[in-house]
Amino acid sequence: MSSGMWTEKYRPQSLDEIVNQKEIVSRFKNFVNEKNMPHLLLVGPAGVGKTTSILAMARDLYGPSYRSFILELNASDERGIGVIRDKVKNFARTAAIASPVNFKILIMDEADHLTSDAQHALRRTMEIYTRTCRFCLLGNYSENIIDPIQSRCSVFRFSPLEEDALKGHVENIAKRENLDILEEGIDAIYQASNGDVRKSLNLLQAAAANKQTIDDVAIYNLLGNVSPEAIKNMLKTALDGNFLDSRELLRELLINQGVAPTDIIRNVYREIMRNSSLSERMKVKLSDTLGTIDYRLTQGSRAEIQLSTLLAHLSVVGEEKE
Q: What pLDDT is stored for residue 3 in this prediction?
């Protein structure tokens, strides 16, 4: 197994390698073909390809020496007006020499962390140096970017990777790294990452360090989370009317495995909402009970007693269902 961060090792090198963001990639390819582009504002969740897309476009624009024509800054570290007056202006005011296009690209990640003063200074800088520099601002929330900057940019909204795309990406990397990964392991990575490619690859690399078969248990152990199958088994036992048996399964999770009560509550809620055998009326009743127990837990009530109460309610609901 090779060393290094897989998020960097398997970062797409060109726009053709990027998946899921088809419309955005198509627009970026037009910028490359025209050898021109506007200022850009890319917004969306973490790990969905914002930085990767810009770097891939820069590589397609400038070729292998693209790093000579771009500057990457992280606004969460350098968020004051000083960085705009110094680093940004110094980079933006100089022309691109021996470049295929007549402008450079300044990439400011997490731009929604810039202070208000810094954003107003950046707005003026974007106006003055448009001829020599294009600004690409990246962030999670567009509402944290002032309107004058948004009006100067073409806004692109990135979405989390779809299930098939993310699973296919994980499976492909596992194959290239000669990993023994099961289908349930890939499912667990997808559920844990919520479309975040960076998180999915970090999970895969961490699980691969054990040099064992990667299944859902290995992934949930890494996360410190309870396996959904354990929750499903406990709920089914309770709904079948076997309260004491379900309580023993609860004690196994709480005491032997050390699962946090809040994790159990969250997973129980998700599984109840997914349970097709429960009527809407039953789900409403159980949601009310879950809310009460969740509140009691935040007030310091004993977790075992409160969660046992939940199982008792589930047993009663199971009897009503029958």
A: 47
Tokens 């296009």 sit on residue: 101
Q: Edge-to-edge strand order for the sheet containing 133-139?
A: 70-74, 104-109, 133-139, 40-43, 154-157
The share of the chain scoring above pLDDT 70, in percent, equals 95
Is residue 155 predicted with pLDDT exceeding 90? yes
Residue 13 lies in a domain: yes
Note whether 124 and 108 are same-domain residues. yes
Is 26 contained in some domain?
Answer: yes
**Whole-angstrom Cα distance, residue 2 to residue 181?**
17
Tokens for 229, please give them: 């199958």
- State which residues form the domain around 169: 163-223
Q: Give the pLDDT band of residue 318 (cuts 50, 70, 90).
A: confident
Domain boundary among the residues 157, 177, 208 is at: 157
Residue 157 has pLDDT above 60, yes or no: yes
Predicted structure pTM score: 0.71
Q: Would you put residue 20 in left (φ > 0), alpha (ψ -120 to 50) or beta? A: left
Nearest to 4 by CA among 214, 167, 210, 209: 209
Could you tell me which residues come within 8 angstroms of residue 202 by beta carbon, excluding any fewer than 6 positions away? Answer: 6, 7
Looking at every residue in the chain, the average pLDDT score rounds to 87
Our count of domains for the chain comes to 3
- Which CATH number does the domain housing residue 59 bear? 3.40.50.300
207: CB partners within 8 A, 6+ apart: 185, 214, 218, 219, 222
From 190, 205, 223, give the residue that closes a domain: 223
Residues 199 and 49: beta-carbon distance below 8 Å: no
Is pLDDT above 90 for 316? no
Do 80 and 181 share a domain, yes or no? Answer: no
CATH (domain of 212): 1.10.8.60
